[in-house]
Amino acid sequence: MQKTTLQTNAKLSFTEFALNNARDVVLRSNDASHFFHNLAQLPQTIYALSSLEAKLGMTFRSYEWPLKALIHRSFMNDAKDKGINSNERLEFLGDSLVGAIVSKTLFEKFNHLPEGDLSKLRAALVNEISFTELAKCLGLQDLLIVGKGEFIDKNYLSGGALADAFEAMMAAVFKDQGQEALELAFNNTIQLLDDSFYDVKRLNDFDPKTRLQEKTMALYKVAPIYEAKEVTIGKFLVTLKIQEKNILSLEGHSKKKTEKELARRVLAQNLHLEGDQNAH
Question: Catalytic residue among 78, 91, 150, 167, which?
Answer without folding.
Answer: 167
